[in-house]
Design goal:
The complex is a heterodimer of chains A (242) and B (236). Chain A is 21% helix and 38% strand. Chain A has 242 residues and is of the alpha+beta class. In chain A, a hairpin with a 5-residue loop joins strand 8 (162-174) and strand 9 (180-184). Chain B has 236 residues and is an alpha+beta fold. Mean pLDDT of chain B is 67; it is low at 46-62, 88-105 and 216-221. Chain B is 24% helix and 39% strand. In chain B, helix 1 (14-24) crosses helix 4. Chain B starts with a strand and ends with a helix. Classes of the chains: A alpha+beta (242), B alpha+beta (236). The interface between A and B is large, with 58 and 47 residues. Strand 6 (128-129) of chain A pairs antiparallel with strand 5 of chain B, so a sheet runs across the interface. Chain B: GO terms for molecular function: transcription coregulator activity. Chain B: It holds the Pfam family Med20.
Chain lengths: 242, 236
């Protein structure tokens, strides 16, 4: 489990170069490119609806969570003009590819958590699968809901232990003929997420320090962008209809 | 070749006495400790209504989920298809004395590309699987077997692993001794030591039995297979 403290914002497409230069000079480290693919899985009932009818909407239904599967986009290193060279289906059936499985709690509520968002993330890595990750998830009772790519730049602030991601969210749709189409959800702009990770949620001192660092970081960037606390409801992984 | 011996005992200290016997009878040394943990989950039977409108065919399927951990590796099995989940901290290659650890290939890459947030995933990080399984009403835990106080020794050309097997109610189900060797003679030597040990140190009615005579060890998943064999044999 990792406790993640974060603040978010957004910038224009045109501001990217200026912002990258600014933040690199602020932090004293160069920005690096990153690209990953994320698959969100929803619990699907293994059992027939007739069995479920006996159990009405209970607390356990609400506690069901989405699972995020994430891995490095294999074409990330090259110029991504030919994104179709590795279809999603191939990626899902690949047996030796490393995956991260993660799920989150809803960010903490309360007055103490109004300055930064504080969220618990549970994650594990899967190194090897016998029949592909998708089959495993299906057997576990989960079905793929949507797929998206995160592509952007990352800057690390070593002294403050803050990571700043500037990225685009690209939705990936796969048609029946296995042709994936991509749609930029952050059109004309980039998401900015500044965060600090703490290994233990019980490590109050580190959390305090990280919170102060994030607030400090926010002040530093005040003239360039306004970092905000994200809405905690949209950060929830629970299966609910909003 | 893999020989597995089960010593039927209810005394948790038998393994300590056995350790003494193994060390006294040869120039062996305890290399490392090991443990395993197996949890079986079951989903309620599936009622599938197939066929045309007239004749409804009801099909019942059981779903099994096994959760095994061995040293720094974890294996999750759904319907006997496996997924291996590996701790990030076991990146160094370890091929000492037949113990193979899975080397995670691109976990650093995952970390760099924002897929993973934790640098040191601790062993036993089955929290996420537990969370998934507990929040998901269809999976119910049925069985839990664990191996504790395990030691691994090298005797001449063979590797000897010992472990105490407990059930979920913490009842000792006996001590398991596993001998891995290519050489028949060394295996026999270890068996002689075991024989002597059972005769000398254990109560008269104690028995020991050979679990699996010649089991080929080729694939990396065999450790898990052995653990499954243990459980099957002990009828847990």
């Amino acid at each position: 489990m990792v406790q993640q403290l974060s603040l978010v914002s957004a910038i224009d497409e045109e501001s990217l170069q200026v912002f990258l230069t600014t933040i690199s000079s602020f932090t004293g480290t160069p920005h690096i490119a990153f690209e990953n693919i994320n698959l969100t899985y929803l619990p699907k009932e293994l059992t027939d609806s007739s069995l479920n009818a006996l159990e009405t909407e209970s607390e356990s239904d609400k506690q069901q969570k989405r699972i995020n599967l994430s891995t490095v986009w294999p074409n990330g290193d090259s110029d991504s003009t030919n994104t179709n060279s590795m279809p999603l289906a191939t990626l899902l059936n690949e047996k030796t590819i490393g995956w991260t499985l993660s799920t989150c709690d809803i960010p903490l509520a309360g007055n103490n958590n109004k300055q930064v968002s504080s969220q618990a993330i549970y994650e594990t890595t899967v190194g090897e699968t016998e029949s592909g990750i998708d089959t495993f998830m299906k057997d576990l009772g989960y079905g793929c809901d949507y797929v998206y790519k995160k592509k952007g730049h990352r800057v690390f602030h070593p002294a403050m232990m803050i990571i700043c991601d500037i990225f685009k969210v690209i939705s990936v749709m796969t048609s029946e003929e296995n042709v994936s189409t991509e749609k930029d959800l952050t059109e004309n702009g980039y998401m900015v997420k500044c965060y600090a990770n703490i290994d233990q949620a019980t490590d109050i001192e580190s959390i305090k320090l990280a919170t102060n660092n994030l607030i400090e970081f926010k002040k530093m960037l005040q003239k360039y962008l306004e970092l905000q606390v994200p809405d905690r409801k949209v950060m929830d992984f629970s299966v609910k209809d909003y | 070749m893999k020989h597995v011996v089960h010593i039927d005992t209810r005394d948790a200290n038998t393994i300590v006495q056995l350790s003494d016997a193994l060390i006294n009878h040869s120039y062996s040394r305890s290399l490392q400790q090991w443990s395993f943990d197996s949890k079986t989950f079951r989903a309620p039977s599936k009622t599938e209504q197939t066929g045309a409108d007239t004749n409804l065919v009801t099909e019942k399927t059981q779903y099994f989920l096994h959760f095994l951990s061995f040293n720094n590796q974890q294996e999750v099995l759904v319907n006997y298809k496996s997924v291996t989940s590996t701790s990030n901290s076991t990146q160094e290659k370890c091929h000492q004395n037949g113990i193979k650890l899975c080397v995670p290939g691109n976990f650093t890459k995952l970390l760099q590309n924002g897929c993973l947030f934790q640098e040191n995933l601790q062993f036993g990080n089955d929290l996420i699987f537990n969370k998934i399984l507990n929040s998901n009403k269809k999976w119910q835990q049925r069985q839990s077997v664990s191996g504790k106080q395990g030691h691994i020794y090298t005797l001449n050309k063979s590797t000897v692993k010992t472990i105490n097997v407990y059930t979920s109610s913490n009842e000792l189900k006996g001590c398991i001794v596993q001998i891995d060797s290519e050489d028949k003679e060394t295996v026999n030597n270890v068996l002689v030591i075991l024989n002597l040990f059972v005769e000398e140190c254990l109560p008269k009615n104690s028995t020991y039995s050979l679990l699996d005579k010649e089991h080929e060890t080729t694939d990396s998943g065999s450790e898990f297979q052995t653990i499954r064999d243990y459980i099957k044999f002990l009828d847990l």
